[in-house]
Design a protein that fits this description.
- The protein is about 55% helix and about 10% strand.
- With about 575 residues, it is α/β, with parallel strands linked by helices.
- The strands form four sheets. The protein has a four-stranded antiparallel β-sheet with strand order 1-2-4-3.
- A hairpin with a 7-residue loop joins strand 1 (about 30-35) and strand 2 (about 40-45).
- The chain is globular and about 85 Å long.
- The protein starts with 6 loop residues before the first helix and ends in a 9-residue tail after the last helix.
Length: about 575
């Protein structure tokens, strides 16, 4: 029996079979979970609950279970009963060595992880800014969290379709088109399109407030656009293309690449069919001139309507989002749809999903898995939403520029003799990585305080600390004149023996478990915590156990642990979107 990537799944299956062989009823569940590191690698708690429900002795049930375990599994794990009936499983050193030797490159890690989501297709909707507006710091969480989710699901075997659902339709464009026709500064447009579009919107808005005639002109601009007037559509397309060019510059900088930019406008000719189907199935009713859906079983939505068509006959977010759900299931044949937005949109997406489920059931469409991945707010050190000193939102481009400049100052202070081009490259990886990791290392549901001093620190759970851990391992091989991928350097390795070696090997084996946990809950901070702990275990191992020693088997196994730590750290950081460095 060769060691598998997902030891927990293998053990769970073996426990199920052992329960049947021991004569335990079909209601037995192993309740397998990672154990306290002091007691083992995995713990099965099912014997306790099973015994209590039947007034049996839980330790005797645990003994029955252990006695029925297959011999190959008993050879791999030390098994012990703890407390009132918990069963602890601790991988033996030889099994640890086998796992570490087997998963020797990124392809093997990915092949092992692929069992989690093989054959499933997900559409992940993230980013999704409004066109004709500059992205500010509030947009970064959707981009960073969404990209990490895409990378993780893809690594774990899923087919992932990245969709940026742009806000490129609706009332704002009446103002922008009016401003474009009356207040355009061509030189400013060529210099920074999004900044000029924002100025045009503000100028048009002010003009409309001051003059009813201007307001009517802006309304007519929107009417002409929605009716397909060629001149209005051409101008709208120009605005969108200039906006997309500016947005893509930031996406490239963050190493984010979308498969589709299917914004609200893409669905504008699909909403009439939605109205007809919702009405025909009895889900939607007229209320005060609007077409709405109520959910009588819901404590709030029984009286809080989901407006799918406004009283003036215009579509809205609900209309286009319903059309989007149908398109993703029918065109992309998605098994799952994941939408990444801030928590303020909870009600909208809860109503959207309630409506979609009933609508799809009534029309015979397949039901996809749907997950609304929410996140909190980035706060300044004053505990309020982070802003500039003038009170305006911080532009995302400015935040990224400052991150690189601050990182460059740190790199220059630490390594002034490096060529400037190399310092700039390190600063790019450290600065952008610091911003990215500071966000992902937080529980996404929570607000968090943004602090330059904290995120750029080389101590604690930060990107600089982890990037330095990677470069330090690479330096070990560089000084020894070895390549971490050279199997010859680790040939003849013996099983881990010292406390540092054993702890590091056990943490490496835990990579599979944390991938499962992270993708199940779509919370990247679980992976961040694991990588931070792995770097800590490596540091403790390296401080206690000299790597380059005379004894060939000892040197080989310690180099093996170094190589696998490097492999998991680099792959884990890349899944989070960070670029690693060979030198720092």
């Amino acid at each position: 029996m060769s060691v598998s990537f997902h030891l927990a799944a293998e053990l769970d299956s073996a426990l199920q079979s052992a329960a049947q062989a021991a004569g335990l009823e079909s209601g037995f569940a192993p309740e397998l979970r990672p154990a306290d590191p002091r007691h083992g690698d995995f713990q099965a708690n099912g014997a306790l609950g099973y015994a209590k429900a039947r007034r049996l002795n839980p330790r005797q049930v645990a003994e029955q279970l252990i006695g029925a375990l297959p011999p190959p599994l008993r050879e791999r794990f030390d098994v012990a009963i703890a407390g009132p009936g918990f069963v602890n499983f601790t991988l033996r050193p030889a099994a640890l060595l086998e796992w570490v030797q087997t998963h020797d490159n990124a392809q093997h890690l990915k092949a092992g992880a692929a069992a989690l989501y093989h054959g499933r297709r997900y559409v992940v909707d993230y980013g999704s800014p409004n066109t004709a507006k500059q992205m500010h710091v509030g947009h970064i969480r959707s981009i960073i969290i969404g990209e990490a989710i895409c990378r993780l699901l893809s690594f774990c075997g899923a087919e992932v379709i990245r969709d940026n659902h742009l806000g490129d339709w609706g009332t704002q464009f009446g103002m922008i088109l009016h401003g474009y026709r009356h207040f355009l500064d061509q030189a400013a447009l060529e210099r920074d399109p999004l900044e000029e579009f924002e100025r045009l919107y503000k100028a048009a808005s002010a003009a409309c407030k001051a003059d009813p005639a201007a307001l009517e002109q802006a309304r007519l601009e929107l009417v002409r656009l929605q009716q397909g007037d060629p001149a209005a559509v051409a101008l709208w397309q120009q605005v969108n293309q200039l906006s997309l060019d500016s947005l893509n510059a930031i996406y490239r900088r963050l190493d984010v690449h979308y498969d589709h930019f299917l914004g609200e406008s893409f669905y504008r000719d699909k909403v009439d069919a939605i109205y007809r189907e919702l009405t025909a199935t009895g889900l939607a009713v007229e209320s005060q001139g609007a077409l709405v859906v109520f959910h009588p079983e819901h404590p709030r939505f029984a009286t809080q309507p989901f407006i799918v068509r406004k009283s003036d006959g215009a579509s809205n977010y609900a209309s286009t989002d319903l059309a989007t759900m149908a398109y993703r299931v029918e065109h992309f044949r998605a098994d799952g749809v994941i939408v990444v937005t801030d928590t303020r949109q909870n009600d909208h997406f809860e109503q959207l999903w309630l409506t979609t489920r009933k609508w799809f059931a009534a029309t015979g469409r397949p039901q996809p898995e749907f997950q609304h991945v929410t996140f909190g707010t980035i706060l300044g050190e004053d505990g309020k939403a982070i802003k500039t000193r003038s009170g305006d939102p911080i532009k995302l481009q400015d935040l990224l520029n400052e991150a690189e400049e601050r990182a460059f100052a740190l790199v220059t202070e630490k390594s002034p003799d490096l060529p400037e081009a190399e310092r700039r490259d390190i600063a790019n990886a450290v600065g952008l990585g610091a911003v990215r990791y500071a966000d992902l290392s937080q529980n996404r549901s929570s607000d968090y305080v943004f602090s330059w001093e904290k995120i750029l620190s080389f101590e604690g759970n930060t990107a600089p600390y982890l990037l330095y851990a990677v470069s330090r391992i690479r330096s070990i091989f560089r000084k020894a004149g070895l390549d971490p991928a050279d199997a010859a350097a680790t040939a003849g390795a013996t099983p881990p023996e010292t406390p540092g070696e054993l702890a590091l090997a056990r943490k490496l084996v835990g990579f599979a478990t944390v991938l499962n946990l992270t993708t199940t809950q779509l919370r990247p901070h679980f992976l961040c915590t694991y990588l931070f702990e792995l770097a800590g275990e490596f540091s403790a191992f390296y401080a206690a156990d000299k790597v380059i020693v005379d004894e060939a088997p000892v040197r080989a196994r310690r180099l093996l642990l170094c190589a696998r730590s490097l492999l998991v750290l680099e792959n884990g950081l890349q899944l989070l979107g960070l670029r690693t460095l060979a030198r720092m």
